[in-house]
Amino acid sequence: MDFQYWNEHFEKMPRRELEAWQLERLRETVGHALRTPFYQKRLTEAGIKNPASIQTLADLQRIPFTGKQDLREGFPYGFLSIPREAVVRLHASSGTTGIPTTIYFSRDDINRWTSFVARCIYGTGCTKADVFQNMITYGLFTGGLGFHAGGEEVGMLVIPSGAGNTTRQFRLMQDFGTTVVHATPSFLLHVESKMKEEGVRRDSLALKRAFAGAEPYSEDTRRRIEELLAIDVYNSYGLSEMNGPGVAFECQCKNGLHLWEDGYIAEIINPDTLEPAAEGERGELVLTVLCREATPILRYRTRDLTGFMPGPCPCGRTHRRLYRITGRSDDMLIINGVNVFPSQIEEVIMAMKEVGNNYVIEVEKDGVLDRLTVKTEVTPESFMDDTRPLNALKEKIRHTLQASITINPRVELHESGSLPVSEGKAQRVLDKRAKDV
Ligand code: DLL
Questions:
Q1: Which residues line the pocket of ligand 1, CB cutoff 6 A?
Q2: Prediction pTM value
């Protein structure tokens, strides 16, 4: 395979040099942090009074973790380290509590972020000959503008179509010969269902690749999108607190996501003990941003569950790879005392070819017990008037799920296109129990 590198010097930097670079950037970032009201207090209390307190990368361990709650309490300017006049943009995520977490960027911050996104895009084989349709939400969400800027940096023709409106998306793809798209995996599945419904022929499209991220999805879901749309799908990981997309991305080997260690320091911890996870063990990802001056964030607890893959990648990049993120430590469901991750359910159902492109997991109270219902669409070919094959399918799903998650779910089959669709991040889990208590 011919690999191409946006910034070969950094992407293939020997580990020792990379770590020396990280140490320098960490000191600089601690310097920025000491200028923010939040870290001024937090770091001084931890005995870190100036950047020189950081002697080696191991000194990172002396810095306390930062959590989502800290960011909320610091709203609006508690994490700002530069004069307001030097800020050129903000992004925010609303979250569930209503208090947004806000990230500010200087002009240089935007440029650095853009070059990381360009690196991700170029590493999948895209060039300026590509036409890139960015089918994700623009606005305060980082996915739209982040990828938009990265795509332009690579020199592709960028179509800022935004999310939703599949009919118009198809039209744009046909009119301008779109070769690459970016969307959430759930929206890509929806696009495929709509293609069938609207009779859009695959050979009327020039599509080759998709970037899919912003929500967890299984390897089977990737395979499904790749097969149905006949494209290559690359996993894209990021979060607003760490700029947005461009934190970790798959290269053409499609086996793990390279985390850009010249921009971020990654740690894996045990979310219960908060101790570093053992070599090769999975746990919660903790990130420190090294490429942003306006809003420094140190040792941020992402809640995302992953681990480092062992060994080097055939692409020659020296940056370590993360396993596919299977979910968040806070999206684990406890159903009648049994721990269940939504990703375990997705893994089972998306591997079945009769199952359609959309599903919802519902949990509710049934007397004193919890009841789990998995509602899933069925492909148009499998949805027929004869109920016998459908009942057999239902039983197969129930049985396979039970073997995987050890609890017995109710299974409902729905016609293709009948479950609610989200244009952005999919709402896969409806936990109705909270309302019942
Ligand atoms: O979702 C940034 C982004 C935009 C990433 C476009 C990729 C593409 P937030 O809205 O702050 O930012 O949500 C971040 O989404 O902590 C994960 O829980 C989840 N997430 C993002 N990418 C992936 C992925 C953007 N590839 C949160 N796999 C993160 C699994 C993902 N989960």
A1: 93, 142-143, 213-216, 235-240, 244-245, 302, 304, 325, 328
A2: 0.95
